[in-house]
Amino acid sequence: KKTIKTNVTVPQDGSARPFSSLPGSVEIHTTDDEVLEVASVNKLYKTVVLGLPVVDAGKHWGNRDSSPVKLSNLYSELLSIPEEWRTAPLSAAKFHQMKQKFPIEWYHFLLGQLDLFHLKENPSNLLKDLFKDTALKDLYVQSALSCYIAMFGLDDTVVSPGHIFRAYNGSLPWSVCLDWLIGNQELYQLTLKTFRYTVKLMVDKASLGPVEDFQELLKYLEEYENDWYIGLVSEKEWPQAVLQE
Q1: I need a surface site. Which of 66, 91, 117, 119 has the fewest CB within 10 A?
Q2: Number of domains observed in the structure of the chain
Q3: DSSP E strands: which ranges in the chain?
Q4: pTM: predicted TM-score of the whole model, two decimal places
């Protein structure tokens, strides 16, 4: 597998040094003076940036209804998600306010990629039933938005490069929602993986141009999954990916 490597700086004496930057495929070359300047900026940033902007968010937190969901058919039940993935401490009002962020077209596209032709029921009719099952959709909306809020916070603030870097490394500012997400380790790892894929996609779009349609986006994601390891050098999967390559 291919790997995304951490950028390094090369001082004038030619020796390599680690450099804290967004992972990417382009190495950064700089001088000793520039390294010292960046180090001082990073030190100041670590001192004053403790988390997301302070807001009175108490009214946004609450326990979502975790009562059994009534899905419309058997196949919707097969696509359901674990109950603990929809128990984020998020109020119903905030959930409905942010519901518009959910990419419903992408959700329908992915449902259309499911292999339904081995089933006895007519695949086209079954797909229409899945599209109409609002209970199934709401399960994915609730889980996806909970992960989004854990990563980016409750407010629609512009995400800084520093926040992106820390999120990539798994060093997010604490919040009630993040605490809930980390408690669901499988979901947390999927969320972190998704975020890192997004960073890689952002780098690819900058160099190769925008993604034209969902089919091309799916191709990118499949390539990341099958041919790359997108993570940190310190993670145990990194040397395994290098050996596979």
Answers
A1: 117
A2: 1
A3: 2-3, 8-9, 17-18, 228-229
A4: 0.72
CA 177 to mean position of chain CA atoms: 15
42: in domain: no
Supply 208's token pair. Answer: 């190769």
Residue 90 lies in a domain: yes
SS3 (DSSP) at 50: coil
Which amino acid makes up residue 36? L
Which residue range is the domain that position 236 belongs to?
A: 74-244
Q: Which of 92, 84, 101 shows the shortest CA–CA distance to 180?
A: 84
CB atoms near residue 24 (< 10 Å): 18
What number of other Cβ atoms are within 10 A of residue 76's Cβ? 20
Contact 113, 219 (CB under 8 A): no
Structure tokens at 123: 């695949």
Listed in sequence order, the residues at least 6 apart from 125 whose beta carbon sits closer than 8 Å to its beta carbon are none
Q: What is the full DSSP assignment across 93-162?
A: HHHHHHGGGS-HHHHHHHHHTS--TTSSS-HHHHHHHHHH-HHHHHHHHHHHHHHHHHHH-SS-PPPPHH
Cβ-contact 3, 245 below 8 angstroms:
yes
Mean pLDDT by 10 residues, the chain (245 residues): 47 44 44 50 41 46 60 86 90 84 94 78 79 93 92 82 93 90 96 97 93 96 95 91 84
C-alpha 38/C-alpha 41 separation (Å) is 5
Return the residue matching tokens 């967004």. Answer: 22
pLDDT for the residue numbered 188: 97
**Which helix H or strand E contains 189, and what residues bound it?**
helix 185-208
